[in-house]
Amino acid sequence: MRDVCYKTTAVLCGKNISVDGNIVRVFETGAGDELVKLFFDPERLDYSSDAIKVGAYTVGATPDGRLRVCRADGKTVVEEYDGDATVYAEEKDFSLASLEGHKKENVRCEYRTQINIKLADVDCVYGLGDKAAGVDRRGYEYVQWNTDDPSQHNENYKSLYKSINFVLVSGKGGFYGIFYPDTHKCTFNIGAYKADLMFIGSECGRLDYYIILGETPRDVVREYTRLVGRPALVRLKMLGNQQSRWSYGSQDEVEKIADGYAENGLPLDYIHLDIDYMDGYRVYTVDKTRFPDLRMLSEKLEKRGVELVAIIDPGVKSDDGYAVYRDLSNMNGLAVRNGEVYHNAVWPGDSVYPDYFDREVARYVTETTANFMRDYKIGGIWCDMNEPASFNGPLPDDVMCGEYCHDRWHNLYGEYMARATAAAFELEGKRPYVITRACFGTSAPFTTVWNGDNQSLWAHLKASLPQIATMGVCGFPIDGVDIGGFGGDCTKELLIRWIEANIFSPLLRNHSSMHTRSQEPFAFDGETTEIYGKFLRLRYDLAPYLYDLAHSAHECGEPIIRPMFYSYPDDEACRRISDQIMIGEYLTLAPITDQGCECRAVYFPRGEWIGWKGINADVKTRSKGYAAVPMQLECSGLYYRADAVIPMYSGLRNLSEKPSELIVFLGGKAGRCISYEDDGKSVAGGRNVYSMSFDGKIFRLSTVVRGYDSDYKTLTVVCDDKRISVPFDYERRIKVL
Ligand code: GLC
Predict the structure, then answer these.
(1) How many angstroms is it from 249 CA to the middle of ligand 1?
(2) 54 falls in which pLDDT band (50, 70, 90)?
């Protein structure tokens, strides 16, 4: 989390207020969590103010002493709740219901800290990360406590793997965000207790939160990501197709998967090694019987443009004969309880947990990861089980990492594991390839994410769209779910609809659990391979468009996949759409997510929208409003805006290939875009920034930043049925119509 520089500090309604840009920090004296490193200078407090200007807003008090943020015209944007917000423990006897196995849904308590915000009838509340529900969180309660629970996640799940304590409110008086940086367990009740009350309750956390103001969701997300840190620039290859399974159990099996892709003409960039590559689940080791020469396998695959990603878990096998265990024990680098190393169980059985918060341990993990990747030529690390998972019951609160109790470090554990891992890539001057399952709101600069153990269910396919789009709004643009579903057997129809719906998911990985049917695209029938392949090719063709969006995510925190409200905040109809997404501003995708369904309603925001040929049966130009669109099994609802200017590639088998042709797809109407070219992997390498525009007749490309020797030899412009190719140059003008 960044140290923002507070320009004004004052006391209002008994709370300390600091302001930076459009961010208002509200806190009690003494608040500040060293783990999250917040900036606070008590000397600068001004006790005499009764209002503070924040850009176009004023932070002040209502006549009855509640904190309120208003616009210049006096309209309220955010205000504290004005009713009775006390939430008491429920007394009702639950024993009868528990006999039948029911679990208590609402565990109410008295919170040490309770932040109470008033909601108007029309308000929608977005955010809170990976929760398995629609985009609007109103009416639900969530408990932020990173949890490994592989059963069927649905909208009733209060806790999943991540704790992203950020809500973005589309309020009656405008947009605003609230971020609560406390790492303890906390509850976000979004009008579930009382319809007009949103409260954040923490049993031991302090009052310390941020109000983030902005005219649009984009403004709020930009400010929020400035506060928590923006994602590292992703390597281009990471946007390629990835195949995984728990587990490909031998060297031969992994090669067969690569062969399967090649034989079927399907592009592929990564294969994942799940836990069975390890020797007895000891992290950073390799089972030499199953993988006698892992380095050779990596080298062979690399020649085909495919890299390996290896899973690493935090649980370290308690075994004196195992170097990692010995090293961590010798440096006192393990979590302890009552002065003794704390043991629980994970995959290797009796296991201990590294204290990633300790600098020496973090350095050790970084070096061990770097050596492991170097020895076996591993391209990426997948950090799993880092909530942390524990098979012998939950970790007690007094398990210590250094001076911090478990109840305080729990939600940050995944982040710190990922940070130590990402630093191994820095050592090599490479952009990181790290995916994590658990994380906190501040984790995006260090890691990308995936959403854990979903299932092969239509409901989970449906949930994937709002999940990925919401993670984007929460500052995690590179996210994905297990395509086809992790648990359970996937059907042909479900897999096809899944790849259609998730084809622009920034992290594109098909993964499945042991004891389920094989789920690779060619494990079904010819038709499945063909349709899956058609969509993969579309993904690879559009890789430069996604890469440009990844640059903008890195620079300004913009999501790649966006909920409809994000792009069209003033369009009422978009406010609660969960089954349709935007990919940047030029594409919208409305896929089928129901079994047997071959037609669906698609919403067209303002502007002209045209169906993508070969993907969408409907190629009519559509304008504002809903339309019912047929989508047979091989079709999905992909539309481009008429003013689209979209950079594309053609025919790549993987993203290590250097394309020599830059194709620019024009929607037909005047439009523009900024596009990037670099080596796709290094941190310090130079780049070119191209500005491309079309005025309805002439297409122009000019180079705004030139720091990289372009690999492009040909520039092709495609508009309707026209296709014009010219030799590539840094300044180009092409007469199209
Ligand atoms: C966890 C992960 C899953 C992985 C499995 C075995 O359940 O979420 O993706 O395959 O562990 O490592």
Answers:
(1) 14
(2) confident
Which residue from 513, 514, 516, 519 has its CB within 8 A of the most atoms of ligand 1, so it is best to mutate? 513
- Band the pLDDT of 102: cuts 50, 70, 90: confident
- Pocket residues: Cβ below 6 A from ligand 1: 150, 246, 274-275, 311, 384, 437, 452-453, 486, 511
**Closest-lying ligand 1 atom to the alpha carbon of residue 150:** 7
H-state helical runs in 513-650: 526-541, 543-556, 564-567
What is the SS3 assignment for 639? strand
CA of 315 to the centre of ligand 1 (A): 13
| Reported pTM | 0.96
Token pair belonging to 502:
């998730």
Give 634-679 pLDDT, tens digit per residue. Answer: 999 999 999 999 999 999 999 999 899 999 999 999 999 999 999 9
Edge to edge, what strands does the sheet with 76-79 contain? 52-54, 57-61, 67-71, 76-79
Atom of ligand 1 nearest to the CA of 244: 10
Task: Look at the block and give the residue holding tokens 């565990």.
Answer: 107
How sure is the predictor about 51, in pLDDT bands with cuts at 50, 70 and 90?
Answer: confident
Peptide bond into 727 cis (omega under 30): no
511 dihedral zone (left: phi>0; alpha: psi -120 to 50; beta): beta
> How many Cα atoms sit within 13 Å of 122 on the Cβ side?
10
The larger pLDDT score, comparing residue 12 to residue 437, is at: 437
Strand 197-202 with 270-273, pairing = unpaired
Give rounded-to-5 percent helix, strand, coil for the chain: 20, 30, 50
Tell me, in angstroms, the distance from the centre of ligand 1 to residue 513's CA. 7
What are the helix and strand counts (H, E) for the chain? 13, 48
Distance 349 CA to ligand 1 centre (A): 16
Sign of the Cα pseudo-torsion (152, 158, 162, 164, in order): positive
Residue nearest to atom 3 of ligand 1 (CA): 453
541-576: b (≥16 Cβ within 10 Å) or e: bbbbbbbbbbbbbbeebbbbbbbbbbbbbeeeebbb
Atom of ligand 1 nearest to the CA of 514: 10
Specify the pLDDT at position 39: 37
Residue nearest to atom 4 of ligand 1 (CA): 246
Nearest CA owner, ligand 1 atom 7: 453
Q: Does residue 50 have a pLDDT over 90? A: no
Supply the residue whose CA is at minimum distance from atom 5 of ligand 1: 246
- Residue 159 pLDDT level (bands cut at 50, 70, 90): very high
Q: Which of 373, 236, 239 is nearest to 681 (CA)?
A: 236
Please give the pLDDT value at position 107: 63
Pocket probe for ligand 1: among 313, 382, 453, the residue whose CB has the most ligand atoms within 8 Å is: 453
How high is the pLDDT of residue 244?
Answer: 98
41, pLDDT greater than 50: no
Query: In a mutational test of the pocket of ligand 1, which residue from 274, 275, 386, 512 has the highest number of ligand atoms less than 8 Å from its CB?
Result: 274
| Helix/strand/coil for 291 | coil
* Ligand 1: centre distance to CA 38 (Å): 34
Q: Chain-wide mean pLDDT for the chain?
A: 94
Q: Which atom of ligand 1 is nearest to the CA of 452?
A: 8
pLDDT digit string, tens, across residues 430-487:
999 999 999 999 999 999 999 999 999 999 999 999 999 999 999 999 999 999 999 9
Return the best residue to mutate from 385, 456, 516 for the ligand 1 pocket (most ligand atoms within 8 A of CB).
Answer: 385
| pLDDT exceeds cutoff 60 at 32 | no
Annotated catalytic residues are 384, 387, 453
pLDDT at 5: 54
Q: Which atom, in ligand 1's list, is nearest to the CA of 513?
A: 10
The answer to whether 313 and 275 have CB atoms below 8 angstroms apart is yes
